[in-house]
Amino acid sequence: MIKLFIIEDHYLIVAGLKNIFRSLGNGIHVAGHAQNVQETVQQIREIDVDVIVLDLWIKDDDPVDNIRCLIREYPEIPVVILTVENSFFWQITMFQEGAKAYLLKSDSNSTIRNTLIQVARGMKVIPDEIQQKLLENCSCRNNSRLTAEEHEIVTEYTSGLALKEIAQKTGKSISSLEKKLQKIRLKANARNIPELIKVLFKRKEL
Fold it and tell me: What is the C-alpha separation between 71 and 51, in angstroms, rounded?
């Protein structure tokens, strides 16, 4: 049984999502829902949850603040974005902030079902076309200001890998990767990681 917690601020959409998830089968069950992240923090402590399903646009809330709060409060529970927003920028941003998958409300039931099952099993689901666009749209790919090593780190980081995963793959320590990312951020004249993403990637609708 995969137990979902939905964060969505429109009641009718919540009702529709419950019907969709119910129709998916494969033991997928909505264990609870809330209208915002603040309500979630209050409710989820008393509920056994496998996956948090978060709408990108919650009234008056910042999407980045929302996912950061959830991951800070519940680092062991994967977060899946389910939204109507299909921009390249927001998909990259949410993966960078720790989302395990990014689904559109227009996706087929089979896509939603398979993605939730994979995430519940501990996987991060980044579609092939998104990874390809990450490489195609990396404006720093041919930037001589970046060394080959720095470009490799940026490519891995923006493909959705966490620092721990990159460290294991490259044989570098997490602390050294953090220092290198800091150096890259300074080169790009970006104040933080979300701003670095804006610099490194051209905003493009999928």
Answer: 12
pLDDT grade, residue 7 (50/70/90)? Answer: very high
Give the pLDDT score at 204: 37
State residue 192's pLDDT score.
66
Residue 57 pLDDT > 70: yes
Q: Is the pLDDT of residue 159 over 70?
A: no
Are 57 and 79 in a shared domain? yes
Buried b / exposed e along 58-87 (16+ C-beta atoms within 10 A): beebebbebbebbbeebeeebbbbbbebee
Residue 206 in any domain: the answer is no
Between 192 and 51, the more confident residue is 51
The CATH number of whichever domain residue 162 belongs to comes to 1.10.10
pTM of the model: 0.64
**Contact predicate 146/154, CB 8 Å:** yes
Q: Cβ contacts of residue 3 below 8 Å, gap of 6+?
A: 29, 30, 31, 47, 48, 49, 50, 51
CATH of the domain at 98: 3.40.50.2300
20 phi, psi to nearest 5 deg? -65, -50
Query: Which domain does 22 fall in, by range?
Result: 2-125
Clarify whether residues 97 and 120 are in a common domain. Answer: yes
Boundary-marking domain end, from 73, 100, 125: 125
φ/ψ (deg, to 5) at 59 = -50, 130
